[in-house]
Amino acid sequence: MAKNRFVEVYSQGITNVEKIIVDTETGVNYLLASHDLRVGTGLTVLVDQNGKPVVTSVE
Prior knowledge:
By secondary structure, this protein is an all-beta fold. The protein has a domain at 6-45. The chain is 0% helix and 47% strand. It is built from no helices and four strands. The chain has strands spanning 6-12, 17-23, 29-36, 40-45. Strand 1 (6-12) and strand 2 form a beta hairpin.
């Protein structure tokens, strides 16, 4: 079976949802957030205090 490109490493909430998703090829972390999953969802790159993308080490 092929390795998943994106993996969820953190999840919070049921209606107001926040998730952190990691790209397993680049290690870049993304924040997925939704006030109500039926209305819409936003996705953005997580950045550190210097504005650089947060990157998780990938093996």
